[in-house]
Write a structure and sequence with these properties.
Length: 151
């Protein structure tokens, strides 16, 4: 695993409009993700979102289900921000923001995720342009460039 320590990759890496992404900081692997150059921040599907205090640190508890048919699991992360985001339907929503490590294949970096109910969306994870500008070129005619989902 190569961790991206600089702000951008030296050589641009081509990816498809949808890819499998790992989020090791949450213990998640092979999450179906849509690349969205129109969205500023990345977002993950989260239900039962509730602010909590953990060891004096403002944190958030949320539930996420990786695959249909599985039971949702509880996750917890420190809150790094709360911001107003315009959703895909044009409505403004205040969302919690957490820090997360992302991995596209062997390339990993630290970024931010907003927590949002993406139930009506086809992909539980959306990767926004702040993450993509690190040196990824999104080819809208291709998908699963970094590897196809396992059955």
């Amino acid at each position: 695993m190569s961790v991206i320590t600089k702000k951008h990759l030296i050589k641009k890496a081509e990816i498809g409009w949808c890819e499998m992404v790992d989020i090791p900081s949450l213990g998640l692997t092979q999450v179906h993700a849509k690349m969205d150059t129109g969205a500023a921040t990345s977002s993950i599907h989260a239900t039962r979102v509730k602010p909590i205090m953990r060891d004096g640190v403002p944190s958030v508890e949320f539930w996420f289900r990786l695959n249909a048919g599985e039971k949702p699991k509880r996750y917890e992360a420190a809150i790094i921000d709360r911001r107003v985001v315009r959703s895909s339907n044009g409505e403004k929503q205040e969302r919690y923001v957490i820090s997360a490590q992302f991995c596209f294949g062997k390339l990993c970096w630290n970024g931010q995720l907003t927590l949002a109910n993406r139930r009506s969306m086809a992909f539980p994870l959306l990767i926004g342009r702040r993450a993509l500008r690190r040196g990824f070129l999104v080819n809208s005619g291709r998908r699963w460039v970094l590897g196809k989902p396992t059955e």
